[in-house]
């Protein structure tokens, strides 16, 4: 059974990370998924618990949304450039322990290039990643779990683009269908995917 540690920026992806965590907990159980907001009891000493949970985990999922790379602290410095930044610390500790770090890219967020990252976490930019999209969220997270378990399910990027079909039976409504096993979105007004 996997022990999963979720690393994320609150200002970038707190809600997506909570939803991902919920599905992971459903599969692995609450004792095998660590997300600070869910897993730390009141009064816990944050640095000690983070280190302990990283030591207990066997994979780190780094949830990366559109502003993960550029968020700045109160002094106007990019958070990742601060050696004491917790996201950077979590990832550095994982790489030092030679743990797998899986970037989880939200929607169209690109994988950061190693040159965009501090040298101690530049491997994030070379790591095999997984994409989680809003429109196919549950299917994408199920695929992530299958891959974490050693399955061979295609990555979301390998499934191909969405197909657009015209439904002539109902006055030309537009139907968007993901190739593969993604969710189908039907908009009876013809205005595109929901």
Automatic annotation (TrEMBL):
<dbReference type="InterPro" id="IPR035897">
    <property type="entry name" value="Toll_tir_struct_dom_sf"/>
</dbReference>
<dbReference type="Pfam" id="PF13676">
    <property type="entry name" value="TIR_2"/>
</dbReference>
<protein>
    <submittedName>
        <fullName>Toll/interleukin-1 receptor domain-containing protein</fullName>
    </submittedName>
</protein>
<feature type="region of interest" description="Disordered">
    <location>
        <begin position="173"/>
        <end position="194"/>
    </location>
</feature>
<feature type="domain" description="TIR">
    <location>
        <begin position="4"/>
        <end position="127"/>
    </location>
</feature>
<dbReference type="InterPro" id="IPR000157">
    <property type="entry name" value="TIR_dom"/>
</dbReference>
<keyword id="KW-0675">Receptor</keyword>
């Amino acid at each position: 059974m996997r022990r999963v540690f979720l690393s994320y920026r609150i200002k970038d992806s707190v809600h997506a990370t909570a939803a991902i965590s919920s599905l992971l907990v459903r599969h692995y159980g609450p004792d095998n998924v660590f997300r600070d907001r869910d897993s730390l009891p009141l009064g816990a000493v944050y640095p000690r618990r983070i280190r302990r949970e990283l030591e207990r985990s066997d994979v780190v999922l780094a949830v990366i949304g559109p502003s993960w790379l550029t968020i700045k602290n109160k002094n106007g410095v990019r958070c990742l450039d601060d050696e004491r930044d917790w996201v950077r610390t979590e990832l550095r500790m994982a790489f030092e322990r030679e743990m797998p770090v899986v970037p989880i890219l939200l929607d169209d967020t690109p994988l950061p290039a190693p040159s965009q990252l501090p040298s101690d976490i530049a491997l994030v930019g070379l790591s095999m990643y997984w994409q989680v999209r809003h429109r196919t969220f549950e299917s994408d997270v199920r695929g992530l779990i299958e891959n974490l378990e050693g399955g061979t399910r295609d990555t979301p990027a390998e499934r191909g683009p969405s197909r657009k079909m015209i439904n002539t039976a109902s006055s030309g409504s537009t139907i968007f269908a993901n190739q593969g096993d993604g969710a189908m979105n039907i908009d009876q007004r013809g205005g595109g995917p929901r």
